[in-house]
# Entry
Amino acid sequence: MTPPAPTVRVRDLGITLGRTRALDGVTLDLVPGVTGLLGPNGAGKTTLLRVLATVSAPDSGSVHALGLDPRRTDQRLDLRGRLGYMPQEPGFHARFTVFEFVDYVAILKELHQRRARHQEVRRVLELVGLDAVRGKQIKALSGGMRRRVALAQALLGDPDLLVLDEPTAGLDPEQRLRFRELVSRLGEGRTVLLSTHQTEDVVALAQQVLVLHLGRLRFAGTPLELAGLARGHVWHSQERDPGALAAWRTGTGQHRNIGDPPAGAELLEPTLEDGYLLLLGGDQVEEAAA
Amino acid sequence: MGGPDTTGAWHADGALLAAYDDQRLDAAARWSVEAHLTSCAACRFQAGALVDPARLERVRAALIDAVDQPRAGVAERLLVRLGVADHTARLLAATPALRGSWLLAVAAALGFAVAAGWTRSGQDANLVFLCVAPLLPLAGIAVAYGPGIDPTYEIGLAAPLGSFRLLLLRAAAVLGTATLLAAVASLALPQLGPGAAGWLLPSLGLTACSLALATTVEPLRAIGITAGAWILAVVVTVMPPAPSSVLFAVAGQVGFVALALLGAGVLLVRRGRFESDRGFDTTPRFAARRLR
# Structure
């Protein structure tokens, strides 16, 4: 089976923010389906998503999304009409109700015909399960509901490319499950890129995974391939293995160690998280195990 | 038409309901049928079967739409009445500088400036007003748009409307409103005449200059720099020991025309700079507006 053609092509992308090289020589392709973007804080995830959402302009390199080049004004506007973006910290107008807020964003997306626009607003609110609270003021909603409002506005116009920055942050387990159901449906036939700190989200949703670290792309492949990086590097022991990069006591009372195993160690099947931690090295392993 | 059933209760017959559905009844008969339908499930059922489902769906959609219709404030209603498209009015109404409370504050500032003039005498009785009025559109634009100021700034950047268009729309609305209020207030100045309109060209010049500067630095900073420069110019020229009204005399006014044209030109050439965040912090700065 031939792999699907990329919908987004990023080549040698670079951007400097202040004195920090936020992205450096990033090259990647996105295909239809869900792609998870992993990386520690400050890795450049938000910067990459902003560039793909045409919010930030790169210093060097190129992006082609849905066959459009955002450096050209006409193509950038076309692209904006076909993408949905959920920022990490979206703001809202304090007095707006849920409906008014999403309606306002629909106007920014140039859905001018009032009746059709309102219908579209109701459609996306229904999709995220907020139809019943559409008359409520946003300031009266819980954090999880507000994330869903932010997701709803990204779905306006049924975009071909969805860019979601930490959409599951602050969601409780039930909300996260609902979110996964929704994103997995959305990923059918369109390109979804979501950044997250939750490796479980990537395991549950993503067909592709990217790992960014210090502005550079450290991994691009399937979740299985990322987990496979740790094959032969995860083992059980009764006590913490001093030679391990990191080790922690699991629910069974045994220690799970990551690193270079001693001879004869009881090796374990690695998870995506093991692969991710091993890829990023000691600091991240220590941080995750803490 | 209608008649009693076997239990003696009155019901609308098929012909009456068909006439009602076709809108062939006069107003009195229509109201009578409607009053009956609200209390009689059997007739409602019969009437429901006569109505075209597509029409029912249209009515239902219109009803839901009317319920969902966002509440329009005074400014928004006024804009729509003036012929502004409803979606444009909505974009403008989200600008704090067009809310009643802001306009009231602008009116109060202008009122104080006028009142200050009446406490002075001589040629410089209008001076306080002339110095204050150009600052008001700048203050309005400062709260109307920009990273960290507009809560939906980042979402707006990723939307096809375009940041530059939104900026121009809001700046024009704020400038227009502030100019209108200042023009009305200037009628109450102690010294009427051409000199009483000396604030208008500085207003235009400073606004254009601040927007042009915003293509280089953060909009809020650009407005701060422009306002600071104006205040400095006022202090240097108007204050003792050598008070002069050069800013409002012909030479000064010509200078502000030049500044307005220059600003507009720079803005036009560099408008593409508004189409990305340029590395500015886009996090909404007012905690109450943050959506997390």
Observations:
- Confidence is low (pLDDT under 50) at residues 287-292 of chain B.
- DSSP finds 14 helices and two strands in chain B.
- The interface with chain A takes residues 61, 64-65, 68-71, 85-87, 90-91, 94, 150-162, 166, 272, 275-279, 282-284, 288-292 of chain B (CB under 8 Å).
